[in-house]
Amino acid sequence: MPTRTARTAxxxxxxxxxxxxxxxSSGAGTFTVSFPTRSADDANGVTSPEELIAAAHSSCYAxxxxxxxxxxGHAPDALHVxxxxxxxxDPAGGFRIPGIRVAVEGEVPGIDEARFVEIAEQAKATCPxxxxxxxxxxxxxxxxx
Length: 145
Known about the structure:
Elements: E1 7-11, E2 18-22, E3 30-33, H1 35-38, H2 49-71, E4 78-85, E5 88-89, E6 95-96, E7 99-107, H3 113-126, H4 128-132, E8 137-144
Parallel strand pairs: 7-8
Antiparallel strand pairs: 1-2, 2-3, 4-7, 5-6
Helix pairs in contact: 2-3
């Protein structure tokens, strides 16, 4: 399996500086990051590590859930996944990610809600990004459309 890469060039202090995150292996884009926007309610078009984690988690989870549903004989027509990643103070000092919330709504022919939720929970437990974030509480809300 391939290794994916990203890099960041940072200029200035923590409080006033900013960086450029480059998705190096794909060349998909370069995005500005800064602490003032990271900790603000309005991101003003600037991303953050938490948003990048949310993007990675939502895409990985969607792929894993699709694979598990297909293996169970219920290939989805559509999955709508959203992920919220919190940034908060760490009681030990600095900051931490205290929680992640995954929500999925599926359009899946021939499956009942209970079975969908069961497979959705399996996907949460087996998604590689969920595994990488195992030190953080991850909650799941799953429903059929």
